[in-house]
Amino acid sequence: MSNDINSEAREIAEKVEAFVRDKIFPFEKDPRCEDHGPTDELVQEMRALAREAGVLTPHIREDGSHLTHLETALVLRKSGLSPLGPLAVNTFAPDEGNMYLLGKCASPEQKERFLKPLVEGVARSAFFMTEPASENGAGSDPMMMKTTAKPDGNHWVINGRKTFITGAKGAKVGIVMAKSDDGACMFLVDLPDPAIKIERVLDTIDSSMPGSHSVVQIDNLRVPADQMLGESGEGFKYAQVRLAPARLTHCMRWLGCCDRAQEIATDYACRRQAFGKPLVDHEGVGFMLAENQIDLKQSELMIDWCASVLDTGALGTTESSMAKVAVSEALFRIADKCVQVMGGTGLSQDTVVEQVFREVRAFRVYDGPTEVHKWSLAKKIKKSNPV
């Protein structure tokens, strides 16, 4: 499959890797990397450097066309060598998935107003779908959506409550999912809006996403009818357009982070002496690094296979579910072993390994927990094998 990646994509990936290693690694110790994610000041400073280096939004060409999913996999993996890399080059979630969705489904007017500033890296976005479990709202089961959309003249009025909305604080573009009498809908909104109130920013295990994850109250939000994405009732269809590739691009970025963690742990194990020899020469340590190499390669192959399926034009929900499960679980094993190899140093913030461990642990939950994807796959297995 690697033979299907053309020279253009390889050159882009090489430029992205060089940029992230040279310009972005030093920012990992910047005090503007806060508990609720890097500040927007830091994000824009890094993006200015990426713009100057010609690597901003590298997976989207100037004419608006995209690299293939397989080519994107290589570029995003290189951007992920630092948790800050995807932010710097504008390949991070939720913006990357939102750009993909708008590129596929938005009208020309919507693209000019909402997509263009995202591609240019001057604005961030948020995807408002998940709802509080305490209110039996939409979480892993979007069919439980409680947020409503009611027509009122040439507007829609939206009411509801959302949670774990990544990047809501500081976002300029919002995609809001709500339920009309026809079914699920998506609306494009300018942010901030007084009708969308951030109740609180959650304290979570991860810290790589600007604005972190918010609980949001939507109170009589009025949205012009021409800001609906597509038609009323088609929201779930559009959600699948976004979610299948987005699950995979998460895998791509975090694979890059685990490449980096493995580099650091390997260097540590080869330099650190214990009981008369380098740590790597102790089988208990060397075997962990060997197992990591196997998991890294298997993750790469799973991502490339799934990307190739998406490139055929298939929706790829089954394949992306399998990739999400296999890769997120493998990456957690890798990050865990890197921490273990490094002992106390791996638990400290002296290196980025500690953060990679936290971020990858969170990845096993967002965009669908492992168990939900397995359950979905089991249902499809049963359907294809009726008794």
Protein described:
- The longest helix is centred in the middle third of the chain and has 37 residues, at 235-271.
- Helix 1 (7-24) packs across helix 2 (40-53) and helix 9 (317-342) runs antiparallel to helix 12 (370-384).
- The strands form four sheets. The protein has a four-stranded antiparallel beta sheet with strand order 4-5-9-8, with no helix packed on it. A three-stranded mixed beta sheet has the order 3-6-7, covered by helices on one side.
- It has helices at 7-24, 40-53, 69-79, 85-89, 95-105, 108-119, 235-271, 283-311, 317-342, 344-347, 353-363, 370-384, and strands spanning 33-34, 37-38, 125-128, 148-152, 155-166, 173-180, 183-190, 196-201, 213-224, 273-274, 277-278.
- It has three domains: 2-92, no CATH class; 125-232, Butyryl-CoA Dehydrogenase, subunit A, domain 2 (Beta Barrel), CATH 2.40.110.10; 236-384, Butyryl-CoA Dehydrogenase, subunit A, domain 3, CATH 1.20.140.10.
- The mean pLDDT is 95.
- The protein is α+β, with helices and mostly antiparallel strands and 387 residues long.
- Residues 233-380 form the Acyl-CoA dehydrogenase/oxidase C-terminal domain.
- Residues 133-204 form the Acyl-CoA oxidase/dehydrogenase middle domain.
- Keywords: FAD, Flavoprotein, Oxidoreductase.
CATH topology of the largest domain: Butyryl-CoA Dehydrogenase, subunit A, domain 3
Q: Quick one: overall form?
A: globular
Termini separation: 37 Å
The total beta strand count reads 11
Residue-averaged pLDDT: 95
Estimate the strand proportion.
15-25%
Kindly provide the name of the CATH class of the largest domain: Mainly Alpha
**Count of separate DSSP helical elements:** 12
Number of domains: 3
User: Radius of gyration from the CA trace?
Assistant: 21 Å
| Major β-sheet strand ordering | 4-5-9-8
- Helix and strand element order: HEEHHHHHEEEEEEEHEEHHHHH
Q: What CATH architecture of the largest domain would you give?
A: Up-down Bundle
Largest sheet: 4 strands, antiparallel
- Given as residue ranges, the uncertain stretches (5+ residues, pLDDT < 50) are none
Domain Acyl-CoA dehydrogenase/oxidase N-terminal: 7-121
Subunit structure: Homodimer.
Protein name: Acyl-CoA dehydrogenase
Domain Acyl-CoA oxidase/dehydrogenase middle: 133-204
